[in-house]
Structure formats: structure tokens, C-alpha cells
Amino acid sequence: MNKKYIDSLFVTAMVFAIIGLFSLIPFKTGILDPIGRAISDFDIYDLVFSRLRPEQKADTSIVLVNIGNLDRGSIARQIDTLNKYSPKVVAMDIFFWTEKNAQSDSALSRALTKCQKLVMVSMLSKFNDEKDTYDTLITSTGKFRAKALTGFANFPEDEKGGYRTIRSFQPFALYKGTKIPAFPLKIVETADKKSYQSFLRRNNQKEIINYRGNFNKFYFLDANSLLEGNLKPWILRNKIVLMGFMGENMDTKILEDIFFTPLNERYAGRSFPDMYGVVINANIVSMLLNENFIDTMPYFLSLLLAITFCFLCALGLFTIKSHYKDWFGLAFKWFMLLLAILELDLGVNIFNYFNYKINLTLLLAAIVLTPTCMDLYQSYIEKRLFKRT
User: Fold this and answer.
1) Where are the domains of the chain?
2) What does the buried/exposed string (b/e) look like for 2-33 if buried means 16 or more CB atoms within 10 Å of the residue's CB?
3) Confidence (pLDDT) at 184
4) Among 154, 175, 182, 210, whose CB has the most other CB atoms within 10 angstroms?
5) How far are the Cα atoms of 30, 164, 362, 367 from residue 204, in angstroms, in the given order?
6) Inter-residue contact 188 to 285 (CB < 8 Å)
7) Half-sphere exposure of 369 (CA within 13 A, CB side)
């Protein structure tokens, strides 16, 4: 075998030995924590959603209703108006923790009971690491959920704390050892059994959210629109209606139940979250109904791809050094830059056009480490291995 191939194999083995060692070290120093958190919340694939994707079509099967700062009596009137138009499902991304005013509570309870199909949100709390299950399920008080199905609203990123970017959702979680569904999945199960069963066959513990867009990619009604009653029947009839908080009005964002998403145009140095929780849930429901999923390359394939690119990178560097020794310093920098750009461009375009995500982190780490391992190999290991002086 040509010596360049043998050298490249040794360098590749060194690169992944180092990556393996680094993966075993717990980097939790106080100085690096802020930097680590900032880096961990950046994903190159966010560029696809925020910059590269063409405008997506609106999903007219879903209607968003803002509750704004309405009191319970007014929310009851909203629901009564909805019920007149026979929606397919009414989903409440709202908690009613306790009973308040007897009159408005009774009106709200009656309105909720009249919904043909009602799904209400819940929240999981107190995760038990030993049993891999949650010990507490928080719901609205029983008076309001007597006829309701429920689903949890936790996002996987919630546990990391702070304003994290919401890129995925967890279809199921364990509560006291029993598997329960997420809020958007329960909505889809209630509205469309076929789409629900199709999704179950994917059998993924976590799903990347394939965002359609913000609230303007669905039918949407602001807080007072339902109360004014000037509606066309087709807007609500046989539609999935999600009710939740989207600011006092939908033209002004406030920091309540709002999150960063990959659609945020300021994907670096973000200053303000861009999407309310109920809109994120609408995007998940739309993805499930339309079966428009994002697939992720399995780890073993990501590893195989990284090893292949690392080997080719090492082989390319050895070839450049053997033919252009005097220009190697400059040539290798250009070679590394072009290779990194090629990888990023390939990964981003595959994601954009085929909804397929490649683990670029492992790939780039291997490429970055290759020149250093090549120097170590030639300075120390090669001389001993081939008994050179």
C-alpha cells in the first residue's frame, strides 16, 4: 500500500482517539460555562430556516386564537363563539390553576364542556433521575378539564434553562412510569388518527421541528375578533383551533410564554425571542398532520462520514506536502478552508432540499484536528514507526 495511505490512516486514528478522549472529559469550569452555553445554543442549520428556505405556504387547517389579557368570562364567550362553527378540535394552551370568580368560572366551565373535542395543556415537573420519570403532572383545576384530554407542553430545551432555542419536541414522556403524550401529539391523535398512527411508526424519542413559520402561516384571530362576531363560517368549521397567549395583541410582543426559534433572523447575538409557545405547538401539529418530517443521520453513519472526510483530508495534506513542500504552509490553509466550506455547504443544502440533517459538529471537529495530528505523527510517531532519524 502507498505510504501516504498508511500515514493518512494513522492520522485518522489519532484524530478519533483524541475526540474520544475529549468526550470523556466533563468541561464544567465556571469560566467556560457562559461560553459553552452560548456555543451550545448555536446551530448552523438555523440558517436554513432563517435565511435560505423559500416562503412556506400557510396551513389553513389550523386556526390560532389569541386570548390576550381577557378575563375568564371573555374567554368563555370566545369558546362559545367557536362552538357555533363546529371546529374539529379546540386545544387550550392555557392553564386555569385555581377557581376565581364564581360567575365567570361557571361560564368558562360550561363553554369548555360544550366543546365536541377538547384538549388542554399540562406540565411535567420534578424529574426523577433514578427512575427516568416525572413525579408531578400539573394541570388546570378539575372543574375546567372535566371533559378534556391532556398533553404536556414541556420542550426538551426547557430543562437547560434560560431562553433557549426550541428546535425539537419530545412526543412522549414518563409520568410515574406511565407513558403520556405531548400536547401537540394529543391534538393530532384527537383530530386525525391516520396521521397519528403514521407518526408512531417513526418511533423517535425526539423530533426536530420542521417550522412552517410564525402565526401568519396559519389562520389567526386576535383577542377581540371572536367577541366581535364578524366571522366567515369556513374560517373555523372543521378546523383545529389552538387558543393561547400571544401578547395583549398580536402586533406587540412581550416576554411571556415566548421563545427563540430557528426562524429568528438574528441567529447570532439574538436580542428578543420570536415565537409564542402556542405558535410553536401549531407548527408541530402542522408538521405531524402533513407528515413533513426532518430525518437525522444515524450516529454510526455520521461517524463513518467523519472518518471518511478525515482520511481524505489527511491524504490531501500529505499529497500537497509531497508535491508543494515550499508552499505547504499557505496551500494547506486554503485547502482546509475550502474543505470546511464544502462540508458546511453540502450539509446545509442537503438539509434545505431533502429535510435530512447531518451531524456537522463531528465532521468539523475531525477536520480541525487533522493538521495538528499530522504534525504530531510526523514529528514523533512516524520516526519511531518506520525507524527514521
Assistant:
1) 3-30+296-385, 56-293
2) eebeebbebbbebbbebbeeeeeeeeeeeeee
3) 98
4) 182
5) 34, 22, 22, 30
6) yes
7) 25
Distance CA 338, CA 344 (A): 10
Q: How many CA atoms lie within 13 A of 40 on its CB side?
A: 13
> What was the pLDDT predicted at 130?
87
Looking at residue 32, what is its pLDDT?
42
Cell numbers at residue 191, please? 383530530
Q: Are 92 and 243 in contact (CB under 8 A)?
A: yes
Q: Is 238 helix (H, G, I), strand (E, B) or coil?
A: coil
Strands 275-276 and 295-296, by their bridges, are unpaired
Residues whose CB falls within 8 Å of the CB of residue 180, separated by 6 or more in sequence, listed in order: 137, 151, 152, 172, 173, 174
Host H or E run for residue 169: strand 168-169
pLDDT category, 357, cuts 50, 70, 90? Answer: very high
The one-letter amino acid code at 81 reads: T
pLDDT at residue 59 is higher than 90 = yes
Q: In the beta sheet, which residues pair with residue 119?
A: 91, 149
What is the reported pLDDT for 340?
Answer: 83
* Alpha helices (H) in the chain, listed in sequence order: 3-23, 33-40, 46-47, 72-84, 102-113, 183-191, 193-200, 225-228, 233-236, 277-290, 299-323, 328-354, 360-376, 382-385
Helices and strands (DSSP H and E) totals, the chain: 14, 15
At residue 25, the pLDDT reads 66
**Cα separation of 39 and 41, whole Å?**
5
> Is it the case that residue 31 has pLDDT exceeding 80?
no
CA 55 to chain centre: 19
Closest by CA position to 102, among listed 94, 93, 90, 110: 110
Look-up of cell digits 426550541: 166
Calpha distance 343→330 (Å, rounded): 20
Tell me which residue of 152, 143, 155, 149 sits closest to 90, measured CA to CA: 149
pLDDT band at 336 (very low <50, low <70, confident <90, very high): confident
Give the C-alpha separation, 67 to 81, whole Å: 13
Q: Are strands 149-152 and 118-128 parallel, antiparallel or unpaired?
A: parallel
Report the relative pairing of strands 218-221 and 207-208 from DSSP bridges.
unpaired
